[in-house]
Amino acid sequence: MTRPEALIWDDHYAVGIAEIDDEHRALFDEYNKIISDNAETTDPALVKAAVLMLEQYAERHFHNEERVMIECDYPHYQNHKMLHELFLANLVYLNGALAEGQDAYYELCRFFRTWLISHIMIRDAEVAVYAGHHAAPTD
Ligand SMILES: [Fe+2]
Ligand SMILES: [Fe+2]
Q1: Residue 128 C-alpha to ligand 1 middle, in angstroms?
Q2: What pTM, to 2 d.p., does this model score?
């Protein structure tokens, strides 16, 4: 199996909301850490810890992102929220696979990497564009 490669953050991943971009960048860092922690051999304990970290971080991040959507009255809020729930459901599935003794490392990497690229660049970017045009007046 080919070893996953690091994912280098650059500005084309930025959606333009500083708080959200900072959180996305931290998720890129976590992805790269998972890869470097498992560079030699995949360790089930490390993979389990990575899934746990992701669960906690993703929940906080999704909460923040959903708040941005609510604040600008984003019309696709329910859909987007469902995609977040799907992400968390995938982590539950991976946790189950780990508990059964499966090597879920490659699946975790594939799933996380695809998510980072596609969800951020398409779905989150749509929210940021909408929020930029529909921000509540400041005065
Ligand atoms: Fe996001
Ligand atoms: Fe999102």
Answers
A1: 10
A2: 0.91
